[in-house]
Amino acid sequence: METPIEPTAGRGKRVADFFALKRNLVIILVAVFIIGTGEELWMRFVPKYLETLGASVFIIGLYDALRTLIGAIYAYPGGLLADRWGHRHAFIIFNLLSIAGYALVLLIPHWGAVIAGMFLFLSWSCFSLPATFSLVGATVAANRYSMGIGVQMVIKRVPIMIAPLMGGILIDRFGVVPGMHIALVISILLSAITLIALRELREEKQEINETAVAAERWNFLRSLREFEAPMRWLLISDILVRFCERIPFAWVVIFAMDYVGATGQQVGLLTTIEMLAAILCIIPASHYADKRRREPFVIMTFVMFTLFPIALLFSRSFAGLMIAFFVRGLKEFGDTSRKALIVSYSEPQRRGQMIGAYYLVRDVIVSAGAVVGAYLWTRSPAANFLGATAFGIAGTIFYMRTTRDERRKARENLSLDISRLRLK
């Protein structure tokens, strides 16, 4: 006699298969959710916090530039450590470093402590980025990369949808500095709890293949040389489009609050709208991208990056800001496809290092966008937003042309192969 558990178990397996859920991925999703909830309570309000502590326009621009630069510098060693140590040990260390950074910012209420502390509190998000992608590559099949990354992106964005709203309420109720400090205490507690989940990660055999690692030591330059043409074209396009994102990035909250008149709670609501738009499109787009070509989805993402500064420029009310942030959320439509392409272009045994090299090159260059953004902001918000749009247009057109050329070359090569077979 069959038990009623079997149909439920069967449905659970189908759901897990559809979302490419494996044990290690579930554990890292839990960690991403809990740590993200703590960080997003305060992370988006850091520019306003710096302004309240007396930081100048260029200090705020420096913060944004360093944030991007640290993400770049940490990406390669993050991937390297994941390849060498395995994911469990790497993730635990990244989390501990972040907790130390939160504590530094909490204990010293000065803009200098924020600049110093960010070298620590960005450890989780920056070091773990290539490690998370390499974990997807080690755990799921190649034709499910978009979905594996997509589920992680959705889980990462759920706290972004909720936590900034709560952080905004804390700031409105207690003030910018006390509200930030309360949020930092919560962040420390949540990150400490996450260490329990990270200890349950199991290492994949390919992660700790010490013989292969010892046989052929790679370095950063070797990783770059292994980039094939499609990955190089994607990298150049991504750099241009990320300039479009980075130029206005630090000034979005200030524009919304100082120019349009939004409250801290409303800024949190705008982030919720952005994340809701992202969550609604990520899973369907990831599902179809795995079944079809991923490049058109990447192009759509680049288009949405380009449209956001224009939508922001024409925002004259909170309703206008809501539309702009909805557009901003749609930029995630094809971001899982972009990341899946990076994973698929990377050498499996050195995937963490190659992904880290990609992000190091991209973000080191794009970090200059924050300085450019600060300069353009001193001219006017319009100069900032229009300058960003120009980079977005350039990156989108470049990617469309290079992918078209790659498809043409592939068709020509296929025709030559067919012709040779006929001659034989």
In a few lines, what is going on in this structure?
Helix content is 83%, strand content 0%.
Give an account of the 3D structure:
This protein has 424 residues and is an all-alpha fold. The protein has helices at 5-18, 23-40, 46-52, 57-85, 87-107, 111-121, 123-139, 145-174, 176-198, 210-215, 220-225, 229-249, 252-259, 264-291, 295-313, 318-329, 335-345, 351-366, 368-379, 381-423. The chain has 20 helices and no strands. The longest helix has 43 residues, at 381-423. The protein is globular, with a radius of gyration of 22 Å. The termini are far apart.
- Radius of gyration from CA coordinates: 22 Å
- Low-confidence parts, pLDDT < 50 over ≥5 residues? 206-216
Oligomerization status of the protein chains: single chain
Q: Helicity range of the residues?
A: over 70%
Distance between the termini: 62 Å
Q: What's the shape? A: globular
Largest sheet at a glance? none
What is the overall pLDDT average?
83
Q: Please trace the helix and strand order, writing H or E for each element.
A: HHHHHHHHHHHHHHHHHHHH
Fold topology:
Layout: H1 5-18, H2 23-40, H3 46-52, H4 57-85, H5 87-107, H6 111-121, H7 123-139, H8 145-174, H9 176-198, H10 210-215, H11 220-225, H12 229-249, H13 252-259, H14 264-291, H15 295-313, H16 318-329, H17 335-345, H18 351-366, H19 368-379, H20 381-423
Which key terms come to mind for this protein?
424 residues, mainly alpha, 20 helices, 0% strand, globular
